[in-house]
Amino acid sequence: MSLFSRAADRARKTNPEPSIRRSDAEWEAMLTPDQFYVTRKHGTERAFSHPLNTEKRQGTYACVCCGTPLFVSSAKFDSGTGWPSFFAPVKEEAVAEYTDRSFFMTRTETRCATCDAHLGHVFPDGPAPTGLRYCMNGTALTFEADEG
Q1: Which residue in 31, 43, 114, 139 could disulfide with 37, CB within 3.0 to 4.6 Å?
Q2: How far apart are CA 132 and CA 16, in angstroms?
Q3: Are 63 and 110 within 8 A, CB to CB?
């Protein structure tokens, strides 16, 4: 089975209903305009524009909307794309995947499984051990460095 078909199969999995639901007005009051655009309106930040793209410290990346841990720095790699990239989420259940057919192509969109925030997309061109590249908007994430 190719990496592309593995990613497509993962996108077809059944995603649970998010446990946190708010109206657009509630999200808009909680988030900056950029965070609202990316996470609630499925926007994309400009490549190389977010400081988390070059973050090198050890720590945890969480959803900016609800605080759910999504990725850890040990799964982060420099993909050269201009967005923070990871080869796996902190746990598979943390990230929901959906088929995205916008822009005349088919991609696999990733969202926070807890609050349905748009995070980015996952592609089948990442490094071992998964072969996946979770290409995330830094605007959709917070970062907490490990102590020590």
Answers
A1: 43
A2: 22
A3: no
C-alpha span between 79 and 141 (Å, rounded): 17
Nearest CA to 134 out of 104, 90, 68, 101 is that of 90
Q: Is 135 a catalytic residue?
A: yes
pLDDT in tens, the chain (148 residues): 444 444 444 444 556 677 889 999 999 999 999 999 999 999 999 999 999 999 999 999 999 999 999 999 999 999 999 999 999 999 999 999 988 777 677 889 999 999 999 999 999 999 999 999 999 999 999 999 998 7
**Structure-token pair, residue 116:** 């349905």
Give me the residue label for tokens 């980015």.
Answer: 120
Answer yes or no: are the C-beta atoms of 75 and 91 closer than 8 Å: no
Catalytic residue among 63, 112, 115, 135: 135
User: Residue ranges per domain, the chain?
Assistant: 3-13+22-145
